[in-house]
């Protein structure tokens, strides 16, 4: 019925909605601390600069994120989104950037993680930041995947492993942790930390490597580490000593809770 339609007549529109001129960061706030905040900020700035947007008020924005979390929970998930702002019709229009902060109490997912390989159907683009447009493509891609309801997507492209749709992946192969590197792979915050610490190695990971994988982890700024129970039906070692080693190192970092 027409009465059910949410129609608005506008002169201007947010450029994040009009042209996907926006980037975001998602992170946990634990008792007022954020793991690797500086890296989140650097990556956000990198993405916004592609649109000619520069933010200079880092401390003020950080404080607003902390305030938003404090109002909800001592353990909170926060999403910071920056768009091009409201502007009249036209690509060349400019506006004052808009900042959106969302927060909700963090709830860990208790279901087992079973990974199922799926093919990414679009050309890969460099992912130097969390562009909303990238996630729009992921939504479109997911409509083509025939995933069992109990499974989580492990994304491939042309025979290479990319990662989860909202997480990097680490694979334990031949006594070392590996994580995919290449076009179309976002360097997540946890992944970045573990690579910088020399705890995992970033390299191209062909799908054939999965046959040799003993253990696997999903890495992101929400759960930090999720242990995978299987990949494509192959059972993995969920109590591998090397998994506990990584978890122990992460647990010692400020702003981390596993």
Descriptive key words:
alpha+beta, nine-stranded mixed sheet, 6 helices, 258 residues, three-stranded antiparallel sheet, single chain, 14 strands
Overview of the molecule:
The chain is an alpha+beta fold and 258 residues long. It has two domains: 94 residues, D-amino Acid Aminotransferase, Chain A, domain 1 (2-Layer Sandwich); 139 residues, D-amino Acid Aminotransferase, subunit A, domain 2 (D-amino Acid Aminotransferase, Chain A, domain 2, Alpha-Beta Barrel), CATH 3.20.10. It is built from six helices and 14 strands. The termini are far apart. The relative contact order is 0.15.
How would you summarize the topology of this molecule?
Blueprint (H helix, E strand, L loop, with lengths): L11 E3 H5 L2 E9 L6 H13 L8 H13 L4 E9 L2 E3 L9 E8 L7 E7 L12 H11 L9 E6 L2 E4 L4 E6 L2 E5 L8 H8 L4 E3 L11 E6 L3 E8 L2 E2 L5 H11 L7
Parallel strand pairs: 6-7, 6-13, 10-11
Antiparallel strand pairs: 1-4, 2-3, 3-5, 7-8, 9-10, 9-12, 12-13, 13-14
